[in-house]
Amino acid sequence: MELIAEHPAAAGLVKQRTLYDHHLTAHEIDGLDTTAALLRARFDSVETPEFAAACALAAHDLPYSLRELAYRFKQLELPCGVVRLRGIPVDDTNIGPSPAHWDAAWVNPPSLLEEIRQCLLTALLGDLFGWRTQENGRFLRHIVPVKKDAGEQLGGSSKVTLVWHNEEAFHQYRCDFLSIMCYRNEEAAETLLCCIDDIDIPDAQWQVLSAPRFQILPDTSHLPEQNVSSHWRLDDGAFARIRQMHLDPQPVPVLTGARNRPFIQVDEAYMRARAGDTEAADALAWLIDAFYQQRSSVVMQPGDLIWVDNKRTVHGRAIYQPNYGPRQRWLRRVNVHANLRDTLPFRQGPRHREIL
User: Fold this and answer.
1) Which residue in 353, 133, 105, 104 sits closest to 227, CA to CA?
2) What are the residues facing 232 on neighbouring strands?
3) 8 A C-beta contact, residue 238 and residue 137
4) Residue 32 — left, alpha, or beta (φ > 0 → left; ψ -120 to 50 → alpha)?
5) 111: phi > 0 → left, psi -120 to 50 → alpha, else beta; which?
6) How far, in Å, CA of 95 to CA of 101, rounded?
7) Residue 105: its pLDDT value, please?
8) How far apart are CA 348 and CA 295, in angstroms?
9) pLDDT at site 18
10) Which of 330, 323, 333, 335 is nearest to 110 (CA)?
11) How far apart are CA 107 and CA 22, in angstroms?
12) What DSSP letter does each residue of 297-323 carry, written as one string?
């Protein structure tokens, strides 16, 4: 299965749709910082199961207003698939230069306090976890421009539109929610978003898209060549299941759940209708077109964090020109499960938070 060419609508005008904005109050920032400082005194890294467990418990101490907002978002009570939290403290001097690559230090990074803040706010939606085949299970990934990946469908790209996708759409245990926080974005790169609620789906399209007539390959960030690190080395056995998914992708539907509030499973670059199924291919093309027509655009600023409902919202990124160097675009991303228990068959044990 080859990657598709960039969609022609990707270069068009952006039409704004529903995005829920919440500016943190002084009380909320104070509560966030107080809780983050307590965790900072105990941990020198967010990349351990002990931290993830402590973070989940500490999130209960955040101000009620933040907990209520997260709860309503999880329960589909808000008319949106994305919530943007604004005004989170980011110390531009203390965090140091933007990393040149995702393969950055795990312990005592200069941005540790910012990382803890993001993890706390994200833990309001569920449990932190990582993918063993993606940066050795790292919870909080760096998203920075990487020259060698400029033309790829990866977070480090810049010369092509990062097309519509749910994170790890190929996997049955893909995250329920993800958060993306901005440390720097002087290049004004646009994050693209579209919630399935913004699409009016005719009955004929629903019947096709809700049937298991599509296949999704694992994206290349889960391959061994994209996981070469100076900090660790994965053995070949870690990629056995991913290789099987490449060789024999199982048919899946695009749409599931309630007709009036469906869940989606989409990866524009790595997804196809089953061979010979032209009706399904046409329906998928229709949906991708609809996402482009109804998309929103967010230029994230330092201190912005977005909660994304990964099972109802697709996201991507527009083409931009990176400022390669110490002030280049720098985002952080973390995934969560609303029910981590269900993923146990794909983990080494209850305490482990890396899905294989």
Assistant:
1) 133
2) none
3) no
4) alpha
5) alpha
6) 15
7) 76
8) 39
9) 66
10) 330
11) 31
12) EEE--TT-EEEEETTTEEEEE------
Q: Are 315 and 155 contacting, i.e. CB atoms less than 8 angstroms apart?
A: no
The span from the CA of 47 to the CA of 107, in Å, is: 8
Taking 70 as the pLDDT cut, the residues of the chain under it are 1-18, 220-238
> Which run of H or of E encompasses 73?
helix 64-74
pLDDT for residue 233: 59
Counted residue by residue, the chain has a size of 356
- Find tokens 């898209």 and name the residue: 209
Contacts of 254 (CB under 8 A, 6+ apart): 209, 210, 214, 264, 265, 266, 283, 284, 287
Domains of the chain: 14-355 (3.60.130.10)
- The pLDDT of residue 238 is 66
Q: How far apart (Å, rounded) are the C-alpha atoms in residues 209 and 254? A: 5
Q: pLDDT at position 107, please?
A: 85
- Cβ contact 117:88 at 8 Å: yes
Find tokens 């899946």 and name the residue: 252
Give the H or E element holding residue 20. Answer: strand 20-23
* SS3 category, 143: strand
Burial class (CB in 10 A: 0-12, 13-18, 19+), 246: middle
